[in-house]
Amino acid sequence: MRLVLIQLSIQTYLSNCTGMTAQNITENNQTADQLALHYLIKEPKTNTTKNKAIILLHGVGSNEQDLFSLAEHLPDDYFIISPRGQFTLSAGRYAWYHVDFSTGKPVFNAQQELSSRKIIFDFINQVKLKYQLDEVYIGGFSQGAIMSYTIGLLDPQEIQGVIALGGRMLEEIKPIVTGNKDLKKLKVFIAHGVQDNTLPVGYARAAKSYLEDLPVQLSYHEYEMGHQISPAVLADLNKWLAI
């Protein structure tokens, strides 16, 4: 799913906030595709004692530019990295795996999901080495949030935080999530619209209930919106990242 900002389009929102368009932001940052995934990156504007990064995973039918358009509205001391899903749906439209909603519930290609899971793990290790990253947060919207839950919960020793925006947790991963000590250090931010008709808010509430039984550091938020990301979400996310 493509990112939608409630009340404002991305173009209008970015223009109002910074005077820059989404196109300007993309053109001012490099594209690199020599690693496991093609990606866009914005390097920090400020120097800190730790190199921190947020890796943003787009939704089904979108691409790496979608969430990257939010880069100017995330903390200045983070690398913002936005990779492209490995499966092509059509020109400019990609996915981490194919999913079918025709039954009323999402039915996904488990083999493709596992393949993307492995390639994202590889990509994280590659960017950590290339950019000498000390901390990595994995996050995304819709299908990107689904993958982020999986990556963070299965590899908490490598991930500092999970950002799940309008997503759900795959039931299939729960038997292989272990309550190891690294989960105590894992921060999880969940944001979901109560009017979401694509992935209803019940998915977020189920994830909240499950995570409350794990030793993670959970921050849960619901908003009066649909399958979207609002300025209020971004404000809460920035506060969470600053903690």
Description:
- This protein is of the alpha/beta class.
- It has one domain: Alpha/Beta hydrolase fold, catalytic domain (Rossmann fold).
- Helix content is 31%, strand content 23%.
- The chain has seven helices and twelve strands.
- An eight-stranded mixed sheet has the order 1-2-4-3-9-10-11-12, with helices on both faces.
- The longest helix is centred in the middle third of the chain and has 21 residues.
- The protein is globular, with a radius of gyration of 17 Å.
**In CATH terms, what is the fold-level topology?**
Rossmann fold
Q: Tell me the radius of gyration.
A: 17 Å
Oligomeric description of these chains = single chain
Topology, number of strands: 12
CATH class annotation: Alpha Beta
The number of domains is 1
Placed side by side, the strands forming the largest sheet appear as: 1-2-4-3-9-10-11-12
Give a short account of the largest sheet: 8 strands, mixed
Low-confidence runs: 6-30
Strand percentage, roughly? 15-25%
- Please bin the fraction of helical residues: 25-40%
Distance between the termini: 29 Å
State the CATH superfamily name.
Alpha/Beta hydrolase fold, catalytic domain
What topology does this entry show?
Blueprint: H1 10-18, H2 22-27, E1 31-32, E2 39-42, E3 52-57, H3 64-68, E4 78-83, E5 87-90, E6 93-95, E7 99-100, E8 107-108, H4 110-130, E9 135-141, H5 143-154, E10 161-165, E11 187-193, H6 201-211, E12 217-223, H7 231-242
Parallel strand pairs: 3-4, 3-9, 9-10, 10-11, 11-12
Antiparallel strand pairs: 1-2, 2-4, 5-6, 7-8
Q: Could you write a compact summary of the structure shown?
A:
The protein is of the alpha/beta class and 243 residues long. The chain has helices spanning 10-18, 22-27, 64-68, 110-130, 143-154, 201-211, 231-242, and strands at residues 31-32, 39-42, 52-57, 78-83, 87-90, 93-95, 99-100, 107-108, 135-141, 161-165, 187-193, 217-223.
